[in-house]
Amino acid sequence: MFDPSIREESAQEFSEQAVLQLVDTVLKKNALFRMRAHGWSMFPFIRDQDIVTIAPFIEPPKIGDIAVFKHPAYHCLAIHRIVGRYGDFYLLRGDNSRQYDGWLHSEKIFGKVSDLKRKNKKVNLGLGIERFMIAMLSRMEMLIEMRKSLLYFLRPFLKRRGVSISLKKSTRLL
After folding, report:
1. How far apart are CA 17 and CA 80, in angstroms?
2. CATH number attached to the domain at 8-160
3. CA 66, CA 158: separation in Å to the nearest integer?
4. What span, in angstroms and rounded, lies between the C-alpha atoms of 167 and 165?
5. What phi and psi, each to the nearest 5 degrees, are found at residue 9?
6. CB of 98 within 8 A of CB of 173?
7. Which residues contact 93 (CB under 8 A, 6 or more apart)?
8. How many CB atoms are closer than 10 A to CB 4?
9. Can you give the pLDDT at residue 171?
10. What is the pTM of this model?
């Protein structure tokens, strides 16, 4: 496993192909892989620059798990939620995305996010039922609308605290 204290000066940049191979190799050895997330497709649960720990699946993936896989269209590493299952195939989608990633066979999924840190503080990923509910809301295309509604009502309070928010749609992938 990588050193838990990821610092700017120790961070390494790799090509997309190298990252995919590295993650696949590490997880096949039943080890953990830690990296910095990039993008906003899983906002608000995973944010740009959060530190994610990726673990191999010990048991079959479940709806609500946050899976790590090679994106079929963009051929890069992606981190999205499992929102559907049909046999050995899983439907994936970013919590902040209106598009599905498609049905992927379980062999195409490297692992799952097992730990999340934001500004050196652990972020709770939920125990199970919360993940399932979030996955169902995402699948029914209600999660983004609920978030927008909540931000609309919280905006005046957040502005008083100096927090700037935008209600624009984000389409960038992790």
Report:
1. 19
2. 2.10.109.10
3. 28
4. 7
5. -75, -20
6. no
7. 80, 81, 83, 99, 100, 101, 138, 139
8. 12
9. 36
10. 0.72
